[in-house]
Automatic annotation (TrEMBL):
UniProt GO MF annotations: structural constituent of ribosome
Coiled-coil annotated residue ranges, if any: none
Pfam family name, one: Ribosomal_L4
Protein name, per record: Large ribosomal subunit protein uL4m
Gene3D superfamilies, per database record: 3.40.1370.10
Amino acid sequence: MEKTVVSEGVGLGMGHYVGAQFRGGCVLFGPKPPSHAFKMNKKLKVFAVTCRFYVHISNYFYSFWCFEDLELPTHQTKKIVNYVKQMENTKKVLLVDGGQIRQNLKLATQNLHYVDVLPSIGFHSRFGSVSRSILYEFCVLSRNF
């Protein structure tokens, strides 16, 4: 066999050939798992998520309530628990408040795992909150949403 490179001065002396063309060398263009992803325009993605959101609203007709204000008189958790009990057969509730989340609302819901509070700014973000809101059985919106 003829040498591919000179023995000295190259760093490949004593037969250290690890190229793909040599026995025991590297694997070149090995198998790759197939990708099932497909490209979609951003506007089309937003449209698809929005359509799914409106289908969810139409399927669960009584799943949205709208209030003038989500202001609570106190920060007690039992007030929120009583409100959730009034909503029949709900397991997860999303509260969307306009602007910043009020301190009483935040304190009252912080230790309830089935109630989440979002500001309206977070709800209007591209994909996250609109698609996340489909996971909730009940959504309560404030008027200044």
